[in-house]
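REQUEST FORM: STRUCTURE PREDICTION
Request ID: SP-0412
Submitted by: Lab K.M.
Chain count: 1
Length (residues): 664
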Amino acid sequence: MEHNGQDNQTLWWQQGVIYQVYPRSFKDANADGTGDLQGILSKLDYLTWLGVDAIWLSPIYPSPMIDFGYDITNFTDINPVFGDLATFDSLVAQAHQHSLKVIMDYVPNHTSDQHPWFLESRSSRTNPRRNWYVWADPRPDGSPPNNWLGSWGGSAWEWDPTTRQYYLHSYHKTMPDLNWRNPDVKEAMFDVVRFWLDRGVDGLRIDSAQRFMKDPQLRDNPPNPKPHMNAYKPLVEYDSQLHLYDKGHPDIHGVYRELRQLLDTYSKQSPRVTLGEMHIYDWPQWARYYGSQLDELHMPLNFGLVSAPWKAIAVRQLVDAIEAALPPKAWPNYVLGNHDEHRIATRIGSKQARVAMMLLLTLRGTPTLYYGDEIGMHDVEVPPERIEDPWEKNLPGLGFGRDPERSPMQWDESPNAGFCPSNVDPWLPIASDYKQTNVAVQRHNAHSMLSLAHALLQIRRSTPALTIGSYTPMEGVPDNCFVYVRQFERQCHLIALNLSGEEQQVHLPEMGSGNILVSTHLDRRGPAEMGMLHLRSNEGCIIEIPGTSSRPALGALGADQACQRQGDQDDEPVGGVDPERLDLRKDQDVLDQRQQDDAGEGTNHPPAAAIEGDPSNNGSRKDGPGPRGCPQPVPLPCCRRWRRWRVRPGDTSGRAPRARRSHR
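STATUS: Completed
RESULT:
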C-alpha cells in the first residue's frame, strides 16, 4: 500500500516541523519563576539551529490561571505574566526573520467565568449576552437538564442561584461553554481570529476542536456498553457514556467551512493553517474534519501514536489505518506528546524514545515536536504540596495530573537548569537529572538525543522524499520491526525501526544494497546489504537506496500508459485495525442511531472516489480500508511484495491502491 506525497508546490505547513512551546515552562526572562515571551525571544536562535519551522504557543491570554491559560478573560490581549502585545509583536517579527512561523492557541469552546461576556450573561436572564452561553432550566426535580458529564469529573452543569438556571461547562465549572449557535458569538470569535491574523500570526491550533457545537435538543448521552474500551486515557465516570450529543454535532462542519474561508482570505498574502485538537480514534470520523472538499481544517490533529501500544505491528496498523482514512489530497500529521500527555521518554523509555523520534520525523505528514522531547526530558515527580494542575486537584490520585510533563525546559547545568535564576523558585520542580539532560551538554555530545534530533531534522529538511514523498510499508519483516519506504521522484529512502530491546534481522533482498545515512545510535553510516540488514536493540536507521539519483525513479513507467489494475479479484485489504484490539471504534449501533436522528443536519457525505479503471468499485465497496486512486510515482517494482501499477498522466489524487499481502 503506497500513499503518495505532494509535488514541489507544497505549503510550509506540509513540509515543516511544528515545535510546541509551553510558555510557562520554556524560559523565564524576568526572574519570576514563570516562562514568558521575552524568554522565547531569547531562544529563537536555538530553535533555528535545531531545524524546526514553526512554533505553536500554548495560551498566553489574560486568565485567572485555573487551567493555566485555557480559562480566558480576554481573547485579544496578553497576560502580563508573559508580557504584552508589543512584546508579542516583536516575537512574531523576529520569528519571521528567523524563518519561523508562529501558531497561536485558539480556544473556541469556553471562556473563564470571569470573562466580561459571562459576567454579563449570568447577571440576569434578560441581559443581551444571556444567550452567549449555554443555559438551561432544571428538570422538575431540580436536577441538571440532562446527564452530560464534564471531562474532569461530575456533572457538566453548574447551578446559578441568581438566575435559577444551569450553565454548561465541558471542563471545570469556572470555564463555561460558549453558545456557538448564537450568530453574535460566532462573529465575536471570528473577530478574535482576525485580530491575531492581522498581527501576523501564521495559524491557529484550535483547542477542543470538536467540542463547541452540541446537540440543540440537549439529549441525554446513551450509556457506554464498553466503558473499558477507550482509545484515549481512561476517564473513569466520563467513560460511562457514549458522548454523542455533548460534542461533535454535524453542524460544526458548517462553522469550520466558514472559518476556513476566513483564513483563506489571509492566505492570499501568506499561507495560514488550522490545526484541530480532537481525540477521535474512529479514523473515518476523524477524517471528516478535513471537509468533503478539503474545505474545513487543514489538519485535524492525530493523537494515535500517543495512545497506541508501542509495538511495531500496532504502530504499523495505526499508520496504515490513518493513511486509508485520509480524503484524497488531505495531508496527514503525527504527534508523540504535548502538555496534556506523559512524555514519550516516560511512556516507552529513553532508548525507544530515540526510535520514536526517527518515526515522528520520517513518517509522511507534518510532525509536531513537544519542547524538551528533543533532549529526552521525562516526567518529573511533583510532590503534593507543589501540585498546580486543577485536573489532579479535582480528581486526586487517579493519574490525571499534567504537571509532570510541563516541567521547566532544561537549558544548561546551572542551578534551575538555566530556566530561571538560581535564587528564584521555578513554578514547577526541575528534573533531578538536569545536569546531564540539558541543551548545553547535549549540543557537545555527538551521540546525545539532541544530536540525533538535530541530525534527523537536517536530513528531513534536505530530503524531499522525507518531507513530501510517498509512504510504502514493507511486508515480510520481523514482528518487532516497522519498515517503510519514502520516495519522491528519483529519491528513495527506507526507514527500518526496531521497536524492541532485542536484535533483529531484516531480509529485503529485492532492495539490493543501501547506504545508511543515520542510525539512532549515531555510531554508524555507510553501506548495508538489504538482504541481511542487522538492527541492534532499540535501533532505527534511515537508508538511502543507492543509484536513485542517476537512474530512473524506482517504479517509474511511461507517462503515456493508462492506469490499469491487474488481478483485482485476489486483492486483499491492508491497513485495517481491529477495533476490539486497538479500541478505535465506538458502539456502532448507537452511531447508526445518531445518524438517523441527525438526518438532514449535514451528516451525509459523498462516497469515496472509485478506483479508476475498476468498474466493480463505484465508491460503495466496503470490503476494506484500502486507499483510492493511483499513485505517482508507483510502488517499488523491484519488490515482489507489491503489484505494478501504471500511472495516468496528471494524476494528482495523492492516493494509492491497496497492496497485496505478503505470503512469505
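NOTES: Confidence is low (pLDDT under 50) at residues 548-664.
Reviewed by: T.R.
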